[in-house]
Write a structure and sequence with these properties.
The chain is mainly alpha-helical and 220 residues long. It has eleven helices and three strands; from the N terminus they run αααααααααβαββα. 32% of the residues are buried.
Length: 220
């Protein structure tokens, strides 16, 4: 019952569920029907057909986690420019629609936090609008998948600082190391520190191009 309540709350934020009164399987069907229709118009990738087919032949795949993540993915990409989306799909998706759609479903299923699905949606918009190819999109998504979600919020510190040392007063060292190993930071030398005991020191890190992309998405 708790999962169904959570799903209903998530759906009410972005879908028209005002006519849904009872919490039963009809609720799920209505939510999925509306969600898949909106995703089809938004992303231009046949997630709809693939997911509908899987739903019909195997309800075990059709669980609350995927529905919620599809809704969050839609929340992230619903404001996409349609003309640029069509061009992106023509250049990157045409002829391999099912492969791309299924890859997105697999990605959403693997995420360790529902909130990452919003970033995945926003990344799709970013790649479409900045003319990245589909391989680059999935490469950046892989970075998001590997990183601990709460650590990503610390990228905002690079909005005010071009570089940050590994030993600093802003970000714990283990988070700095995590962001670096996740593929979001670049090393820029070593700082030996100042005369004061609490001066910043250690490896100097700056955002690499993937870190800059995520920062722009997180802080938009």
């Amino acid at each position: 019952m708790y999962k169904l309540e959570m799903l209903k709350r998530e759906a009410e934020e972005i879908l028209d569920t005002s006519s849904l009164k009872e919490q039963n399987i009809d609720l799920l069907n209505e939510i999925v029907g509306q969600l898949l229709q909106k995703l089809d118009l938004c992303a231009g990738i046949p997630i709809v057909n693939i997911f509908s087919t899987i739903h019909k032949v195997g309800k075990s795949f059709f669980d609350y986690k995927i529905i919620i993540r599809l809704m969050k993915f839609y929340t992230g990409c619903r404001d996409i420019d349609q003309e640029k989306r069509d061009m992106f799909c023509k250049q990157n998706v045409y002829g391999k629609e099912e492969k791309v759609g299924y890859s997105i479903l697999q990605l959403l299923d693997r995420l360790d936090a529902d909130e990452k699905a919003i970033l995945i949606g926003k990344l799709y918009v970013y790649c479409v609008e900045n003319e990245y190819d589909i391989s680059s999109y999935f490469r950046i998504c892989r970075i998001v998948e590997k990183c601990y979600f709460d650590d990503l919020e610390f990228l905002s510190h690079w909005k005010e600082h071009e570089t940050i040392c590994s030993l600093n007063k802003l970000i714990p060292q283990e988070i700095m190391e995590s962001l670096f190993s996740g593929g979001l930071l670049a090393e820029c030398g070593i700082d030996g520190g100042g005369f004061k005991e609490d001066d910043d020191a250690g490896t100097i890190y700056a955002l690499n191009k993937y870190g800059e992309i995520l920062l722009s998405i997180i802080t938009e």
